[in-house]
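Hi everyone, sorry if this is the wrong subforum. Our group has a chain we'd like a structural model of before ordering constructs, and none of us has done structure prediction before. Sequence below.
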Amino acid sequence: MDIKCLRTFQAVVACGTYAKAADRLGYTQSTVTVHIKQLERDLGLPLFERIGRRMVLTQKGAEALAQAAEIIAAADRLAALGTEETALQGTLRVDLAETLLCYALDEVIAAFRERAPGVALRLRDRTCAQVSENLRDGSCDLGLTYAFDWQPEDFSIEEVGQIRTTLVAAPGVSLPDFQSAGQRAELPFIIDEPDNVFRIALEQTLDARGVILAETMELWSSQAIKRLVVMGMGFSVFPRFAVADELARGTFVEIPDPFGERTFPIYLGHRKTHWLTPAARLFCDLVREQLRAG
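Answer:
Right subforum, don't worry. Here is the predicted structure as tokens:
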């Protein structure tokens, strides 16, 4: 049984189609087809059934996938035995929340580059939903975010920190009252994706108090949101670490926070079926050290 066929099998499941798996693996689609047919011949059973354009695992295929993942992980560990001295090489792909990338991980990134100069570190800012999706399909190795759309059998998830949020506006604007029930906030709420964890929490909190937001403006960049807030065009909610400098300079003023003592977790995750390389383990250790200390 060829390990390449097992890796192709795993990729087809993660990507959903032969074509997408071929793109991910750098194969032609015909090569993917050959690998799957060879594996089905070796096992003596069908692995997939087609539903529309998507390949769906049969019951036996699902059982085979779990065992294939164990074999692949064991093969990766075995291959790493002879490379301990040069293990910090290759590429590490990390998807993470934009505010974490821009405002919380400078020391982590600097320390990683110093200790692993041979590793190509690929960082991408993504929404919480995108981080989960990309971990699931294998297009990133690690995810760092405020929420995961996950199942226990998919990911290994750990909490690596707790953060507080703060609501901010520009000095001189009329601040909304979020402490009293039944108010109407005329100052626009400027925020990004609808699935933003802090947005959802704020909207639910205000809705429970009967507070109405007159207008919500959606932007997809924390820098753009900050710029409009500075111009007095609305208010926003950020992790406190992301606006600490502006608050210290007086660029922003703080709106009394309706969350009280509530904190929000930061999660670090990877696929259970993917063996963590030495580079990935180093990055995880640096993240734990930085975020838990902070």
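For your construct planning: Residues 59-80 form the longest helix (22 residues). The domain at 165-262 is CATH 3.40.190.290 (D-Maltodextrin-Binding Protein; domain 2).
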